[in-house]
Amino acid sequence: MSFTDSTDSGSDRPVSVLWGCELSSARSSCTFRVTEDWHCEQQLVLRTVCLGEAARDEFHVLEVVAEDGDSRAPVPLATLKPSVLPSASLAGVELTPPVTFRLRAGSGPLFVSGQHVSIMDLTSDEEDEEEEEEAAEEAPRKPPKGSGAQKGSTAKKRKREKEEEPNSLAPAGPPPAKGRGAGRGRKAAAKK
Fold first, then answer.
1. pTM score, two decimals?
2. Which of 101, 133, 171, 177 is most buried per CB count within 10 Å?
3. pLDDT tens column, 114-140
4. Which of 27, 1, 30, 2 is nearest to 117 (CA)?
5. Cα–Cα distance measured from residue 128 to residue 96, given in angstroms and rounded to the nearest whole number
């Protein structure tokens, strides 16, 4: 049984399918693979690992072997025991296929569950670039606020341009006054 979840966000469309496997003494390994004809980003996002009701009271060790290049060192993910820790959350574990899960110790059954996530690109890069160029050409260009659209004398325009120029050497205003109540937003008391 699998469930799919998809959201449409522009050109990328994530598709999520529920995934799981059972490991036991009869079947001690399971490999998650994707077909070569899928030309999109693939990930396996793990959620939980738990023991079945028929599991003996012994340590069950789950390990994963990521098959990326020459390095194939197994990494233990969880150690479970029915009387102590019958299940564990594997939140944040995201693996790129192909990945092999093995029951290193114990007789099982041990269940691994997660989501197979595919991000499908619905448009090509060339189409995206063309659409961006067309949108830039079609968009009307508006003059910036406060520019030539206002009526006024030439002196006012020069003054405005001078104010807009950044001058890091000149102080922004007069230095703050020292004394009682200065800089706190209070008005000075009237003298009698």
1. 0.56
2. 101
3. 999 987 765 555 455 555 556 556 655
4. 2
5. 27
Let me know: does 78 contact 49? Beta carbons within 8 Å.
Answer: yes
Q: Kindly write down the DSSP assignment for every residue of 116-184, as one continuous string.
A: EEEEEE-S-HHHHHHHHHHHHHHSPPPPPTTSTTS---HHHHHHHHHHHS--SSS-SSSPPPPSTTTTT
Q: 52 to each of 21, 45, 116, how far by Cα in Å?
A: 12, 21, 22
The neighbouring-strand residues paired with 12 are 9, 121
pLDDT classification of 107: cutoffs 50, 70, 90: very high
| CA–CA dist 168, 160 (Å, integer) | 17
Q: Which residues contact 42 (CB under 8 A, 6 or more apart)?
A: 34, 96, 97, 116, 117, 118
Q: Burial of 136 by CB count in 10 Å (0-12 exposed, 13-18 middle, 19+ buried)?
A: exposed
**pLDDT tens per residue, range 74-88:** 999 999 999 999 999
